[in-house]
Amino acid sequence: MFALFLLLVAGIAAGAGWFAWRSALNQLAERGQADLSLASDRLVGQLQRFRQVAVIMADHPDLVSLAKGQGDRDKASGLLLATADKIGAVDLLLADRNGVVLASSQGLTGASVFTQPHFRRAMHGALGTSHRRLIGSNRRVFQFAAPILEGGAVLGAVVVSVDMEAVEESDWRGDPNAVFFTDQDGVIFVANRSELVLRTRGAGGFAPDKVRKFGDYQVWAVNSGRYIPRRALHLTQPLPIIGMTGEVLVSTGPAERLAWLQAAAVAAVLLAFGAILFWVMERRRALAERLEIEARAKAELETRVEERTAELKQAQVELV
């Protein structure tokens, strides 16, 4: 009976803990998705600012004139340098239709950008975007190329290069949740945790040790450093405008603690109720035993009285 009661308590406590866990997980998912959306909006907003600069500079008369082979190279380079300093760009350059750099904020000319995907896209009259790691370093840049158009013909392009580490530090490096952005090749190109940068998602790179599913949610068990939660809710958000997928890891620690506390509280209440019920039942049993003993004693006394009375009557008869 006692073992059955303990099993019942354990089952009810487990149910209460499970309900608390799912409720807390839903709340974590809502907050995590909001944080991911906010970080995504900040990243896209920052990059869009540089994109707008590329589009605006593509219409600047000094740059258009140089693209046509008529402008002043030094004047154009000075303009690009002043603009790059204002917006915090790594480089701002002008290239002709063959990809040859005509002017640059870094003062470098003659190099070719013809093979770079953002430039090739611009040569088709559209805004080109791409991201890459600079050769010989871990420096990551996001690049925009805006075509210079005249009469329907493409004369060249203005290319803006953005230092992604500067964007991370200025925007959301201190966020409590681990947020990262993965490109189409599975490479984590942007993150607010330095240990995740440039790691490849999947086996051999950054991947969970174990994944557990709870409805539509995934809870990861990971071991990737002190600033990455060991158990975390994993959420994603596609960002086609920059060709990446935003991801966030939200620690499930608060939800786990809440579930354990809820289960412990329910178990404590049930055990307390069971203890009171057991005490009451023991009191009733003791009282019943006492009454039974008293009843037996009374019956024995009455029997002895009757036997003594009979003996007295018999002695009286014999005496007569």
In words, what does this structure look like?
Helix content is 50%, strand content 23%. It is of the alpha+beta class. The protein has a domain at 58-163: PAS domain (Beta-Lactamase), CATH 3.30.450. A hairpin with a 4-residue loop joins strand 6 (178-183) and strand 7 (188-191). Helix 1 packs antiparallel against helix 6 (253-319). The longest helix has 67 residues, at 253-319. The radius of gyration is 40 Å and the shape is rod-shaped.
Q: In which order are the strands of the major sheet placed? A: 7-6-11-10-9-8
The DSSP helix count reads 6
Please compute the radius of gyration using only Cα atoms. Answer: 40 Å
* Average pLDDT rating: 87
Indicate the CATH class of the domain at 58-163: Alpha Beta
Helix content: 40-55%
Tally of DSSP β-strands: 11
What is the string of SSEs from the N terminus onward? HHHEEHEEEHEEEEEEH
* The CATH superfamily title of the domain at 58-163: PAS domain
Structural class: alpha+beta
Essential attributes:
alpha+beta, Beta-Lactamase, 5-stranded antiparallel β-sheet
